[in-house]
Structures are given as C-alpha cells and as structure tokens.
Amino acid sequence: MQVLDTPPQIIRRRVNELLDQVGLLDRRNDFPQQLSGGEQQRLCIARALINHPPILLADEPTGNLDPDTSEEIFRLLEAINLKGTTVIVATHDNAMVDRMLRRVVYMCGGRIVGDHPAGSYYQPDECPYDEAAPAASGASSEW
C-alpha cells in the first residue's frame, strides 16, 4: 500500500480491519516467527486481501496444518467469499472438499477432466494425459 502512496492512516485502518477479519488483531505486534502455522497462514490470507482483489487463489492453503486448523482456514476462505471475493482453492484435502459442497473442477495432467457444481473429491486411478505420473491429479474448488 505504501508503494501506491496510500496515506499511513488508511494503511493502519485497512491492516487492522484485515487482522480482525482473520482473527489476528491481538497479534498485530508479533513477528511472523512468533505465530503458529495456522496463524501464519491466516496472515498470508490477510496480506493477499489488502488491496481488495476480485479473486483470491489459494494453493494448498492447509497443506501442513492439523485438521482443526484446516477447517478454520476453509471457514475463513468461505467467509471471504461471502463478502464478494471469488476464492479458488487447489487442494488434495478430499475430506474438506467433500464437506464444503462447492463447485469442484478436477484436473489431470494440466487438463480439466471434470467439473461438478456441488462436487465431492474424486481422484482417478490413472491420468491419461500424463504418462510420466499416472496417478497425478488434483481438485480445485471455486467459491
């Protein structure tokens, strides 16, 4: 925001709004290394939202998090979506995809192989488009 010559008082207000939105307002004076993995992930989400993007891309946002923290991150992404930001998540967390009941686009070998409006996670036995990695696939959920 400083690069865009945003006045300091607007920067402070926006930072506090986002820290509050992601549940980190009370940690605003802490350094990143003082935060847990889930808190660091929420901070990354806040940073991505600082300039009001129309789309948020989240690549494996719960990759190294415990199930409870993963649920918390997905609920946060859902709340962001409800406020008007399109959220696209790339994940292999099949349990979370199944619980969210959102649109799921399946990719295999860099190609779309399925699109379900209120989908569930699906992983094909083989990927016909990538012979080097026959079981490679992933799901992307768009809100």
Which properties best describe this structure?
143 residues; alpha+beta; 2 domains; five-stranded mixed sheet; 5 strands; 20% strand
Provide the fold topology.
Blueprint: H1 8-21, H2 37-49, E1 55-59, H3 67-82, E2 86-91, H4 94-100, E3 103-108, E4 111-116, E5 138-142
Parallel strand pairs: 1-2
Antiparallel strand pairs: 2-5, 3-4, 3-5
Helix pairs in contact: 1-2, 2-3
Describe the overall structure.
By secondary structure, this protein is α+β, with helices and mostly antiparallel strands. The protein folds into two domains: 1-52, no CATH class; 54-143. It is 35% helix and 20% strand. The chain contains four helices and five strands, in the order ααβαβαβββ. It has helices at residues 8-21, 37-49, 67-82, 94-100; strands at residues 55-59, 86-91, 103-108, 111-116, 138-142. The protein has a five-stranded mixed β-sheet, with helices on one face. A hairpin with a 2-residue loop joins β3 and β4. α1 (8-21) crosses α2 and α2 (37-49) packs parallel to α3. The model is unreliable at 133-137 (pLDDT under 50).
